[in-house]
Amino acid sequence: MGSDKAFLEFRGETLLQRAIAVLRSAAGTVTVVGDPTRFPREVAAVADTYPGCGPLGGIHAALAHSACELNLVMAVDLPLVTAELLVFLREAARSSGAMAVVPRTARGFQPLCAVYRRHFGTLAEKALRAGRYKVDAVFAEEAVRIVGEEELAAGGFSERLFFNVNTPDDLRAAESGESGQPASFS
């Protein structure tokens, strides 16, 4: 994108502001993973313990700093995710003993819009220390509750909600509502 996605404008607010509002609505407390010096003082932020290790590093940092058993994790570049979807995932996690509750669409797992038990952070750290940075690899080692397309649809949610903004064209498509077929996913 050529700039930090968190500060891109989307429908009158930044992607960061939107993500915080959606998460706050679904969960209450929000902590951002990233360099704390980049964010306004009123935003609780924690740095990656394993910088440069991709999404698994961010998930690990979030869980390492959390006191909560269940943790909603959402990427800032998913502007179409709704609080209703996050509540749906949270409730699926509450009724499951799984280490993670993760949506899976035709495009694959959506690990950056999922619910993780705090202990998943220990598993993530083990993988990161071993040089394994793929979230899916950790899923293979643990009990994961997959929320498939049929279950999402039954809850009133479409794959479109997982549209990921990686390019200026993606941002325009999300803003205009033309993101029916996601162009890219993380």
Explain the overall architecture.
This protein is α/β, with parallel strands linked by helices and 186 residues long. It has one domain (5-175): Spore Coat Polysaccharide Biosynthesis Protein SpsA, Chain A. The chain contains 7 helices and 9 strands; from the N terminus they run ββαββαβαβββααβαα. It has helices spanning 15-27, 54-64, 83-94, 120-129, 135-141, 149-154, 168-176; strands at residues 9-10, 13-14, 32-33, 45-46, 70-74, 100-105, 108-109, 113-117, 144-147. The strands form 3 sheets. Strands 5, 6, 7, 8 and 9 form a 5-stranded mixed sheet that branches. Strands 1-2 form a two-stranded antiparallel ribbon. A hairpin with a 2-residue loop joins strand 1 and strand 2. It is globular, with a radius of gyration of 16 Å.
Supply the key terms.
about 190 residues; 7 helices; two-stranded antiparallel ribbon; single chain; alpha/beta; disordered C terminus; Spore Coat Polysaccharide Biosynthesis Protein SpsA, Chain A
Distance between the termini: 14 Å
CATH superfamily, by name, is Spore Coat Polysaccharide Biosynthesis Protein SpsA, Chain A
Specify the CATH architecture: Alpha-Beta Complex
Structurally, the number of domains stands at: 1
- Based on CA inertia axes, which overall geometry fits? globular
> Which CATH class applies here?
Alpha Beta
Average pLDDT taken over every residue: 90
Count of DSSP strands: 9
